[in-house]
Specification:
The complex is a heterodimer of chains A (about 450) and B (about 500). Chain A is α/β, with parallel strands linked by helices and about 450 residues long. Chain A folds into 4 domains: about 120 residues, Rossmann fold (3-Layer(aba) Sandwich); about 80 residues, Regulator of K+ conductance, C-terminal domain (Alpha-Beta Plaits, 2-Layer Sandwich), CATH 3.30.70; about 90 residues, Rossmann fold; about 90 residues, 2-Layer Sandwich (Alpha-Beta Plaits), CATH 3.30.70.1450. In chain A, about 35% of the residues lie in helices and about 25% in strands. In chain A, the strands form 4 sheets. Chain A has a 6-stranded parallel beta sheet with strand order 3-2-1-4-5-6, with helices on both faces. Chain B is mainly α. Chain B has 23 helices and 2 strands. Chain B has a two-stranded antiparallel sheet with strand order 1-2. In chain B, a hairpin with a 2-residue loop joins β1 and β2. The chains are: A alpha/beta (about 450), B mainly alpha (about 500).
């Protein structure tokens, strides 16, 4: 696909890299020559310097042949304007990033009136992810498939777990769980598990299952997480805003610590149930005063990665609950991983995943589509959900008779309302939703995983 | 530096060079020449060494700016070393330095030869086609070729393309480097084919037509006749003159024309280049007609000045007449256009028209600043501001160019009889033109220079073709620092 990305900020760069790795022809546009150069030096994309909302710049970027236009500059208004001009200029889908809660609330109206294919709000998406994991505290990441019927759940193996030293076959024989263990992260490496994979302490394990069955499994292996009843949030930015609005209806009591008086006042007037504290989140005394050591969850959402990391390290020492850390810069992911934080939230990666999913789904016209895509391990292991349409060559053949490429795992089949955790003799049928976990493959069609 | 990726890329270069030798190999079979065995041996050597160099696999395949520069510089040196093998083994040029000089001159599309007219006429056909074919490979760049056909991993290949492609700024035509390289090579191939077919209409043998087409396409200048192009028909001369001009225009222009974007195709560099060509032709024609020393008719004067101007500004170096005998004014124009050279992004050499334009615009701005000391003004090109970094780099390029020029000038002046000869020999090699004036003139050969001078000129040719910076990067000690990877 020919894709134009306006704005070479954090999200723009990540998108350019991921979309290019997926085999698309990407052109990036930005006003700053230095930013454009930075991207074109690292990624095999074309750069155009100019204002992405002007006719001439869009012409130069090749809007006439573009299939998709993504505006991710820092300004909501500019993004919307860019998309409007692009829509007029070329026959392409448009995606606009919108940050402010006001516009975000009117996303459906904007989508319809401006003909946008998607309005994306990275901070809202991040807040939704935090809220999902809060409801499932044993996990560090929960990603829903098949409209929430199946989830991909990632958890870290605690040091006292009975699973340590067991192989996948042992686990299946002993517990007979209705789950599928699919991938494993150890240090910098990610693996797709097979029968002989043995678990070690601190491994990050991803499994696919229904939420209930996963709960059963965790109970069996004696891995309990306390339900989150209260949470402390450091920083009162947009993510906090969205998180409050999502959790307002739940029973989780929230405490927000924010330095800026105006922001505090706004938060407290919008979310009256939330306990808003004016103060520096890095003030140790204040943190203790607000009960950080007894809180069930702590969410580090300040504007600085360094502060978030520092706060998280502190919470690991003093606190006992669930920890969420927002990190914007992912280049040092391997170092962050060593810190053993529970859930690392990265808004730009979430955004990039959502857009990648859209691109793969719309790039595909063959028998089956990517419905959902989830990055299990940054850029390495992915879980993709496909809808199998009539005529697909995999229909009706038992899974153990199909020859898959290496590092491919069929993780779940959803048929009507039933979820099947597949074994060798299971058969894929028409209109099934199939979740497939792959390593370094990025399938855009279900037949891509066959050898 | 990442030595692994450098070694691997060099290995691919050697393998591809072995592949390129198929052309002379086929020629030797067609004409049943005994050099068949020479090329077979050379191909086996290339395959063996290339295989050894490309062995092994490492995840460390990142290319940064310094790796790009070093890969390009070393590739061209290695390519010239292996390319010299057929000359040495076949005994056509037994001396190593001479054979290396001839190959460097071939790949850099210079066209300076150490062979005399008689030796050129007596050369086996397969050696002759190898000589011409080196021009074709070197014209567009062998790394660009490899990039187009080999899925080299990593997006940073742009560093290689930037280092190998001529011109102050190198942009992409399409988002993917690989497709850009493919488009460029497609244009290159189609234009070469067109010239070949048109040459056949001029009643030359297919073998000669192929040689001329290769040599013109790369703007090289090796000929298979002892007198270069002097004894060819007027049709051939005019045709070759036109194609030399076409090959020295920025290839982006052809891409825009092919896509129907005519307005964009005639950007200011192309316009200025055409203007310089027309002015030079007019100047020389008038000078020749008014002085009348050569006894040309007006038609001949136009034809010879057209051919000579397009041959020298495109830095090809074909000759139809011994312009060394022309009046001084004409020779002065010839020297000037040798320095100006072709457009950026073409196969020609020289300083490049776009650099000259930017240098002038920058100087104009500086003069303006004398009058308005606090003036802020951007240098504009094609209605877009040019980045200050680009201008700074061009200024550095010019200084280095002059420094290299004068050091080489000093070394070469030991061997020759006149300032003109020494000066023009360096001008002809650093600008990749081929023939100079005086003892290095169009009817002479470079054989008499000392081995030291020849090696200096080899450096000049490579530095000129690669636009100085890659060759100079080799002298930066930091580049050779081994990267230490922490064991995990």
């Amino acid at each position: 696909m020919n894709i134009i990305i306006v704005g070479c900020g954090r999200v723009g760069q990540t998108l350019a890299e991921n979309l290019n790795n997926d085999g698309n022809d990407v052109t990036v546009v930005d006003l700053s020559p230095a930013k454009v150069k930075d991207v074109t030096d690292r990624v095999d994309v074309m750069g155009v310097i100019g204002n992405g909302a002007t006719h001439s710049t869009l012409q130069e970027a090749g809007i006439k042949n573009a299939d998709l236009f993504i505006a991710v500059t820092n300004s909501d208004e500019l993004n919307l304007l860019c998309c409007m001009v692009a829509k007029k200029e070329g026959d392409c889908d448009t995606i606009a990033r919108v940050k402010s809660p006001e516009y975000s609330a009117e996303a459906p109206y904007l989508k319809e009136q401006l003909g946008l294919a998607m309005v994306i709000n990275p901070q809202l998406a991040a807040a939704e992810e935090i809220a999902r994991v809060m409801r499932f505290p044993t996990a560090i990441k929960v990603e829903p498939f098949a409209k929430g019927k199946v989830s991909l759940i990632k958890f870290r193996l605690p040091s006292d777990s009975p699973l340590i030293g067991m192989s996948v076959v042992d686990v299946i024989n002993k517990y007979r769980p209705e789950i599928l263990l699919c991938s494993l992260e150890r240090g910098d490496e990610a693996y797709i598990v097979n029968g002989s994979t043995t678990f070690k302490e601190k491994d990050l394990i991803s499994l696919v299952s229904t939420p209930d069955k996963a709960h059963d499994f965790f109970k069996k292996i004696n891995f309990k997480g306390n339900a989150v009843k209260d949470a402390v949030i450091a920083g009162g930015g947009n993510i906090t805003h969205y998180l409050c609005s999502i959790l307002e209806k739940s029973k989780i009591a929230l405490t927000v610590i924010e330095r800026d008086q105006k922001v505090c006042e706004e938060l407290s007037s919008t979310y009256p149930k939330t306990n808003v504290i004016l103060g520096d989140a890095l003030n140790k005394e204040l943190l203790f005063e607000e009960g950080i050591s007894s809180a069930d969850a702590f969410v580090a959402l300040t504007n600085h990665d360094e502060d978030n990391i520092l706060l998280s390290l502190f919470y690991k020492e003093e606190g006992q609950g669930k920890l969420f850390t927002k990190i914007n810069r992912t280049d040092y992911g391997n170092v962050i991983n060593k810190l053993d934080f529970d859930s690392v939230i990265c808004p730009k990666n979430i955004t990039s995943d959502i857009i990648l999913r859209f691109v793969r789904a719309s790039a595909n016209t063959k028998g089956s589509n990517v419905e959902t895509l989830y990055n299990v391990v940054d850029g390495k292991v992915e879980a993709s959900e496909f809808l199998v349409k009539a005529g697909s060559p995999i229909i009706g053949i038992p899974l153990n008779k199909l020859t898959f490429k290496p590092n491919v795992l069929v993780a779940a089949i959803t048929r009507d309302d039933k979820v099947i955790i597949p074994r060798g003799q299971d058969v894929i049928q028409e209109n099934d939703f199939v979740v497939i976990v792959t390593k370094e493959l990025s399938p855009s069609d279900i037949t891509d995983v066959l050898d | 530096m990442n030595f692994y990726i450098v070694r691997k890329t060099l290995g691919w270069i050697v393998l591809f060079e072995g592949l390129f030798m198929l052309i002379p190999l086929i020629t030797s079979i067609v004409y049943w020449e005994s050099e068949f065995l020479v090329f077979l041996a050379c191909m086996l050597i290339c395959a063996g060494i290339g295989f050894l160099l490309t062995r092994g696999n490492s995840k460390k395949d990142t290319i940064f700016a310094k790796e790009g520069l070093v890969i390009v510089a070393l590739s061209w040196i290695i390519m010239s070393l292996f390319g010299a093998l057929p000359f040495i083994i076949s005994g056509v040029i037994p001396n190593f330095v001479d054979a290396f000089f001839e190959t460097v001159s071939g790949f850099t599309t210079t066209g300076s030869s150490i062979l005399s007219s008689e030796q050129i006429e007596a050369m086996p056909k397969c050696i002759a086609i190898w000589r011409s074919f080196t021009h074709w490979i070197g014209g567009m760049g062998v790394l660009v070729f490899i990039m187009a056909f080999l899925p080299l991993s990593g997006a940073r290949n742009m560093y290689i393309m930037k280092a190998e492609s001529p011109g102050p700024t190198v942009g992409k035509l399409v988002p993917k480097v690989r497709l850009t390289a493919k488009i460029l090579y497609t244009i290159y191939f189609l234009m070469t084919l067109t010239e070949f077919v048109l040459l056949l209409f001029g009643k030359v043998s297919p073998f000669e037509a192929l040689n001329i087409a290769f040599s013109t396409a790369g703007t090289g200048g090796f000929a298979i006749r002892g007198d270069s192009m002097a004894s060819t028909s007027a049709y051939i001369q005019v045709l070759v003159a036109i194609f030399m001009i076409l090959f020295s225009i920025n290839f982006n222009a052809y891409y825009f024309i092919a896509r129907g974007r005519f307005k964009e195709a005639f950007f200011s560099e192309v316009k200025v280049f055409i203007a310089i060509v027309l002015l030079a032709i007019a100047g020389i024609t008038l000078n020749l007609c008014l002085t009348g020393t050569q006894g040309y008719s007006v038609g001949e004067a136009i034809r010879h000045s057209l051919f000579t101007v397009s041959s020298l500004i495109s830095t090809t170096g074909y000759v139809t007449v011994n312009y060394d005998l022309w009046p001084v004014f004409s020779k002065a124009i010839i020297i000037i256009i040798m320095f100006v050279g072709a457009c950026a992004g073409s196969t020609g050499g020289g300083i490049k028209v776009s650099r000259i334009i930017l240098l002038f615009k920058n100087s104009k701005r500086e003069v303006g600043k004398l009058v308005h000391p606090n003036q802020v003004k951007s240098v504009m090109m094609d209605k877009k501001p040019v980045e200050e970094d680009t201008i700074r780099s061009i200024l550095a390029f010019m200084v280095l160019y002059i420094v290299i020029f004068f050091i080489s000038f000093l070394v070469v002046s030991i061997d020759v009889d006149s300032l003109e000869s020494a000066f023009s020999a360096i001008a002809a090699t650093i600008n990749n033109v081929g023939p100079g004036l005086g003892m290095a003139g169009p009817t002479e050969s470079f054989a008499f220079f000392s081995p030291l001078s020849k090696l200096v000129m080899c450096f000049d040719m490579l530095a000129g073709r690669l636009e100085l910076f890659p060759m100079l990067a080799l002298f930066n000690p930091y580049v050779w620092k081994r990267e230490r990877v922490k064991k995990q």
